[in-house]
Amino acid sequence: MSNSATGDRAATDSGASHPAAFLASVVGISAAGMGDLPATSLERLRAADVVIGSWRQLNLIDGEIPAERRPWPSPLLPSIEPLFEEFSGRRIVVLGSGDPMFHGIGTTLSRIFGAANIEVLPLASSVSLACAHLGWPLNDTPVVSLVTRPVSAILPPLDQGGRFLVLGRDETTPGEVSSLLTARGHGGARVHVLSDLGGPDAHTQSYRAAAAEPPRSALNVIAVVPAGNHGRSLLPGLPDDSYDTDEGQLTKADVRAWTVCALAPRPGEHLWDIGGGAGSVAIEWLRSTPGTTAAVFERADHRRATIADNARNLGVEHLEVLGEAPESFGEADTDPDVLFIGGGLTAPGLVEAAWSRLKPGGRLVANAVTVESERVLWRLRDRLGGRITRIQVDSETSIGGYTALRPALPVTQWRVTKRVPESTEQGEKHTP
């Protein structure tokens, strides 16, 4: 959407309290409705030409607001820009729950239109209200939103062993959380369902996960207190039996830990894992560093299904699972910041195609076991630089009544950073 709407409204807005500099004001509203709104938020609503929100939110504003009420269409994201175009030149107020910048519509609108074009007027978030009610420190409380994510997303914080909060999607979320906790051996976990926080109908239910009760409202925050610490570490190097696999298509725990550390994940980065096998490297990339994303490329249909199952079982169901590389590169949502090549090094054109998609300044890590793949790595190192490392792991084994160390196949690893061209204007490229 262009900024023409801003200019049009600036010409027609003669001193109205809704600032003409913004495409929209996003007003946080609680279950208490207009009674909790500060003066500035009330001003924006009274001056609005149209108010957009969910039906639940729209029903919280009373008849003193003359604006047209418009519920969000479904699906939400594709409808946002067309809806703003429809109301171009009019004063728009968008309703958000509590703090719209905490897993809310404010973050979405700021991303689409730019933060400078959106005014956000927050209230206390539902998480702030929940922590105040429970007596938990807000700064030390992990939060998982299930508004758009599957219930398996609670598994990483559950593995950490501490208490955490869950933002519910609707009245089904408390039951889904309790069912998953019970299925994973956490039926003794204490669950608190805090409903309609900040409003006159606020209510809390408390029970053990295995004895879940029907929720009283669709607007819930769920607090989970595990009974003991029976989880798995989020650091890379999970036991090999954490994964379903076939034909030995699994990067073993010690090499996997080394590899994920070599990939050096940072929040916001996107990984391509080429030759996924069981998906273990991409899965532990995602588990180790919140805010990362990843796509796995695997040619075998049954392995792609296994990767998806492994990702679901380990709480990173958002892992993107795609077909054979490089043919499926065009199906990926975005180019990689980081590349891992665990298979296919000898396939003609694969490394070149992957390197061309890696962003400037991005990192590549490749593992080789066979002599033929290792030769490829040395040639690439000679052309592009980087560093070669040999990983040798010996593990104990029994020989009769004695113990010995048996070496695994050594892994040759190449790490390299793709340099940033000195002059992008000249279209300079650096290819393998």
Automatic annotation (TrEMBL):
One protein family per Pfam: TP_methylase
Domain Tetrapyrrole methylase: residue ranges: 26-204
BP GO annotations: cobalamin biosynthetic process; methylation
UniProt signal peptide: none
Transmembrane feature ranges: none
Pathway as given in its UniProt record: Cofactor biosynthesis; adenosylcobalamin biosynthesis
Keyword set includes Transferase: yes
UniProt keywords, alphabetically: Cobalamin biosynthesis, Methyltransferase, S-adenosyl-L-methionine, Transferase
Keyword Zinc: no
SUPFAM superfamilies in alphabetical order: S-adenosyl-L-methionine-dependent methyltransferases, Tetrapyrrole methylase
Highest taxon listed in the record's lineage: Bacteria
Gene Ontology molecular function terms on file: protein methyltransferase activity
Entry-linked NCBIfam families: CbiE, CbiT
Protein name: Precorrin-6y C5,15-methyltransferase (Decarboxylating) subunit CbiE
Organism of provenance: Corynebacterium pygosceleis
Gene field: cbiE
